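Checked the freezer inventory, then went back to the computational side. Two predictions to log before the end of the day. The first one is the construct we discussed on Monday; recording sequence and tokens without edits.
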Amino acid sequence: MDLNANNGENLTPGYVVYEDGQPTRVLLINYVDDPSGGHDITARIQIGGEGTQQPAANPPQVRVKYFEAPSVSFKGNMTWAGQTLGNHFESDGRLKGEEVIHTIQCDAATNQCAIPLKAPSLALVFLTDAALQNSSPQEGATASFETTYQTRVRHTATIDQAVLSTSNGRGGGTGHRIGSTSFGSIGNGVAANLSVPGTSLLAGLIVGIMMVLNYGR
């Protein structure tokens, strides 16, 4: 549910997740792109209490996972709870680094939990221990697994490297040209520059005979 945070400010939205009619998680976002810290904010979460016509229900503490990046347009080396998939062309699909989950104490006097947000960043606030546990991998879960799925189905032929190093290929520039063997190529598997042996010689003889006949006239 949209919390309409900061009077509906687009750059700092907030949302709450309910389970069985009870709030369990809060999502807070700071879209402002300012690494100087000038636009870092603190969001204050209050569940029930004064002004809500509901009993105070804030927990004594909350757990927070942060999603962070150098800028809102950055596409690599982003971190989720302190872990990262790596920079461009570095990822193997597994998170690296130690997971960092922040514990923030709530103020019992004001019935509020103050959640700091850097610019830019995203904070997922877990209001209960059960919500955090349900959002985490089970202890002992497999971190990665091997696959038997075949991903390469073309160009799988191999050749002895010792034979290749001493071969003369297809005879250099005057060798047999068979076009491209790449999948999808126009010349895929089709011989190029086909010719019939002796055709040029036969054409030359015919032209020569015609010239002699014309000369005789």
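The second is the one RB wanted added to the comparison set:
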Amino acid sequence: MASWSCTEAALPANSLPGPPTATSCWPAPPVPVKAMNRSNRLLRRPGMSALEVFASPTVEPPRRLLVRVAQRGSLLVFLAILLGFAISAPNFLSVGNISNVFAQSAMLGILALGLTCVVIGGGSNVVSGGLDLSLAANLGLCAAVYSSLNNAGFEAWQAIALTLGCGLVVGAFNGLAVVLLRLPPLLATLASMNLIAGLELVLTQNTVLATDSALLDSLASGVWLGVPALASVLLSVAAGLWLLIQHSAFGLRLYA
């Protein structure tokens, strides 16, 4: 839509009856794109981030291309690394090796998937956004709880339920600290990380708790449908989380 500029001018005293002034309007000259890019005041709407501003169609194509590359930089780096390994090791992309990689990274992958929800819901700001520094400490505490319960003679389902409950309590503690006490997630999870690490030391007496069960043996060395069990668990969790985020009301609220 074109903008117009208008001015009012006084009429002579002997003019026809009517208002003492006359209004003249003409189209205003367009604002140069470069000037808009420098200030960003005309491009930015409420709620828009800097990347969204520079990625808008009114921004110069070279800068918009750089922004798109920056947004997908991690994917490009991953593909470059994958290509490098594929060239240097011919069997790297084989089904057996890919399954082995998934199995070895299952634990960290599941933790990363959980943290993805935190980042999506809270934003990527390091101080005030979605961040959980207590993730690794929570993992160690839950492992210690499961080992202790398993060695104490609890049934497998009881040990699993209590271990999951331990993780939920830690997550609820972090959530209450952020929502009710209004602490920055960085500080809240940093404090809980040290607290959880201390609880783990008390529970394990600063020693390694060795344990064994049929469930652990099945996960460590089992094969489900030709795929290592840990890799199957990782892929199942990833697929379930994708469906939850992309095709549910929870996912819509998470992005909102």
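For RB: The chain has twelve helices and four strands. The beta strands are 4-10, 21-27, 223-224, 227-228. Let me know if you want it refolded.
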